[in-house]
């Protein structure tokens, strides 16, 4: 894929970028390695000052940043502005809590290991390569960059090829905030050059958010090189509704959970599993709300759903929907691309899905909801867990026993009861099964790219 800004609302190529030459790439890796040697010795207070300054810039320039995101990947302007402000919040969170999260962990009674002092100490690893996707072009990067930089690591960003201006802005904002040159660098390169960077001994670890094939590739290479990785590989999240739920609230949230970010979110609800006793009532409310959504120019304030980010992405959605329909599924709304320019696809609800349809197991990365009927909680859980993914999950019930059952038995990295899945700096984020491994955010996220060093200190005197 060419490195270019292509407006998904029009299909117009706005700007193209040259890929880094090999000599330029090597210079950037060398700079990252050399910068880490000095940056790792800075204190939390100094790093926090840089991070707060970067947050100030994000807040001051939120409107500019939002227009950049909307132009490159098509999310609504309001959603883009919220993303910019969320980045600032995440920066401040780690600026304020990094010292606490990475404080020494002393053994309460060091004498039990024959020491005068014994403790664990978190220390940065070095240059980390981040391979990031286009769907949240700022926030996905920030939930790696803020904790990594506050821990004393330095970052190298290989961003998606369709959001180059977002990628360059991120490097620029850290530079303008005062971070020493080389602490965070954007690499405008193609995916085929990632392997050489991962195998470079100066790059010590990697994090990737993206497709399962991309994750397998990075994990295999880093496994061969014995380098630490964190992977977030998407999901096909269930949204379960039981009879005790508030149906109006559940239906309204279901729509938001499905079409957030134009339906292109790893933690968007994608499979809606509804108890048979309320199936018809929920379906009526859900479909009516999906039909009311306005699809159009993401820069217009009245638009609810903008375009899919790439032409291939829309084609992938159409393939899954057409496959299901040809095998007997029923489309309750949407299901046909509109005429005209841009890569738009309407909010769509499909039911009558069976195991032989691709949509039963595969993730739909767009505003398409799969609707299932469940006889009871056991069948709801069976349908919910019948996927290789395990990122987020949602369950709607006011029955405490059912809530505990969902918390215990849903196979996911996150369970949200009576709400939609959201990533918060304050909570750990990540998946299980083929949704990846490792955690971002909260204390766990900043510790992922640290060496937890065991320190044992004796008296130095011979016993008498």
Automatic annotation (TrEMBL):
Record's keyword annotation contains NADP: yes
InterPro entries (UniProt xref): Ald_DH/histidinol_DH, Ald_DH_C, Ald_DH_CS_CYS, Ald_DH_N, Aldehyde_DH_dom, ALDH_GabD1-like, GABD/Sad-like
Origin superkingdom: Bacteria
Protein name in UniProt: Succinate-semialdehyde dehydrogenase/glutarate-semialdehyde dehydrogenase
GO molecular function annotation: glutarate-semialdehyde dehydrogenase (NADP+) activity; succinate-semialdehyde dehydrogenase (NADP+) activity
Keywords: NADP, Oxidoreductase
EC number assigned by the record: 1.2.1.16, 1.2.1.20, 1.2.1.79
A Pfam family the protein falls into: Aldedh
Transmembrane segments: none
Limits of the Aldehyde dehydrogenase domain: 3-455
Recorded family membership: Belongs to the aldehyde dehydrogenase family.
